[in-house]
Amino acid sequence: MKAAIFRGPGQLAIEDVERTAPGPGEIAVTVKAAATCGTDLKSYRRGHPKLFPELPARFGHEFAGIVSEVGEGVTKFAVGQRVVAANTAPCGRCWACSLNRESLCENLEFLNGAFAEEVVIPRAIVERNTYRIPDELPFEAAAPLEPLATVVHGMDESGIKLGDTVVVHGAGPIGLMFVRLATLRGAHVVSVDQAPFRLDQALVAGAERTINIAGLDPAQVDEAIREVTPGKRGADVSIEAVGLPVVWEQAVRALRPGGTAVLFGGTPKGAPFSVDSSAMHYEEYTLKGVFHHAPKYVAIAVDLLSSGKVDGMSLISEVRPLGALVESLEDMAAGRGSKYALVP
Ligand SMILES: [Zn+2]
Ligand SMILES: [Zn+2]
């Protein structure tokens, strides 16, 4: 069968590989759609020691498909069912899991290999983070389950309430999902980005206002954001969905006194960001780092996609054949599209 094989930074290709049969507790799934994500692009360019400790490796983790074989002892799923799965499952036994902080699990089991004709889902993920999806839900729309689950986690931490003013910094797929979910929760949402096509998508997702900050200096950005908040005080909740320290700083500066910043976008290791300590003290900010997801958030994300409350298709820039994987990552790097669904 065809599968994407990753051999190191910049070395990714579709190759012919042996099919693997599912082991006990595992299931094999014929991939009907696999979505590219920012993590794929990062891994392709720089490698990713956590996701790819050993090379060569299978590649890709956002997918939906049809069960093609079930391993010994699997009773939850049967051949022919349409399913979607998250990219990891927590162990349920470590200190983090026992404190209900499953996103910090020390033994997260990862799945790689979604960019292929078939993928085997590891036992822990079959047990805790794999779901059937309705017949009417397109596979392409179900594939972005993992990022949506992380955004559901961010929403849970945000404390966003009915009537809040929420500023979302960045309108890529993650930012758009925050815009959509904050809108569903009854907030007034402002989307901030530099690309007109992304800001247009934010309006479709439910943003009441958009601010194009292309060419503005930080002081002008702060003023433009404050201008559209109640009493020009700033945002009740400010969400960073870019993954750049300068935008983390921008997100904190956008807060009203007593506001909460959700610092969501992953930044390079060791990259510092700074906050005015006086403002942090006198204005009582709450800053929250949010990473990854947990089974309860995956369940909510499946429901949002299945019910159509979040239109997964709206996150997809284009549907392409599997062979266009590398080209699609390059297009993401060049800012031509933000998420591609690849069909084997
Ligand atoms: Zn992803
Ligand atoms: Zn654990």
Notes on the protein architecture:
- With 344 residues, the chain is an alpha/beta fold.
- The protein folds into two domains: 2-144 and 316-343, Quinone Oxidoreductase, Chain A, domain 1 (Alpha-Beta Complex); 151-289, 3-Layer(aba) Sandwich (Rossmann fold).
- It has twelve helices and 18 strands.
- Strands 3, 5, 6, 9, 10, 17 and 18 form a seven-stranded mixed beta sheet that branches. Strands 13-12-11-14-15-16 form a six-stranded parallel beta sheet, sandwiched between helices.
- The chain starts with a strand and ends with a strand.
- The mean pLDDT is 97.
- The chain binds zinc ion (2 copies).
- One zinc ion (ZN) binds at residues 37, 39, 61-62, 146-147.
- The rough form would be described as globular
Determine the N-to-C terminus distance: 10 Å
Q: What's the CATH topology label of the largest domain?
A: Quinone Oxidoreductase, Chain A, domain 1
Write down the domain tally. 2
> At the first level of CATH, what is the class of the largest domain?
Alpha Beta
Strand content: 25-35%
Q: Helicity range of the residues?
A: 25-40%
Largest sheet: 7 strands, mixed
Uncertain segments of ≥5 residues (pLDDT<50)? none
